[in-house]
Amino acid sequence: MEILDGFSFKEIVTSFMVLFAVIDIIGSVPIIVSLQQKFGKIEAGKAAITAGAIMIVFLFVGNKILKLIGVDVNSFAIAGAFVIFVIALEMILGIEINKTTEAKAASIVPIAFPLVAGAGTLTTALSLRAEFHDINIICGIILNTIFVYLVLKSAKWLEKKIGDATLMILQKVFGIILLAISIKLFTANFAQLVLNYVNF
């Protein structure tokens, strides 16, 4: 039961919120609806489970890949902080840097990957390992997977109820949250790198 030793409700909530903001599934509702119109019924369960599996696998395999190429978690976390920073600017300023809107297949591509479990999400998940215990990040991923499933199942209803103006406000709010998180992630890991490599 060692995996449960680091269990923390606070870390679970934080992991969920960080990943939720990066995934931005609410902001992607218009894209999901357009894909549904283009390809017909979206297999919500298949897409959500696939996205969750990709994130959890990368959470562990990604670290092994880093060790193989000689990159420590702190350095990767700083790189992840820059990615999150760019995503936050994208959300706040309303610009598109790396947003996939075209598709050649439904459900798994492009919904599970790269819309949900994209480069930003995978980088963020791995970056969180520098701060939080694995069990808490996994719980955050599972909660997001459930939320993604619910959104995919009710995409049309959400679009009618929420509206474009509310979607835009939500994007701005989560963008600001992400911006603050990216700065915290950068400063914490940069300080650790200084301690590890600089001798005073």
TrEMBL record:
**Pfam family, any one:** MarC
Could you tell me the keywords of this UniProt record? Cell membrane, Membrane, Transmembrane, Transmembrane helix
Q: Where are the transmembrane segments?
A: 12-35, 47-69, 75-95, 107-129, 135-152, 173-195
Q: How does it sit in the membrane?
A: Multi-pass membrane protein
Q: Record's GO cellular component, any one?
A: plasma membrane
Subcellular location as annotated? Cell membrane
Source organism, top-level taxon = Bacteria
Query: Which family does the record assign?
Result: Belongs to the UPF0056 (MarC) family.
Could you tell me what this protein is called?
A: UPF0056 membrane protein
Source organism of the structure:
Chryseobacterium artocarpi
Top-down, what is the taxonomic lineage of the species of origin?
Answer: Bacteria, Pseudomonadati, Bacteroidota, Flavobacteriia, Flavobacteriales
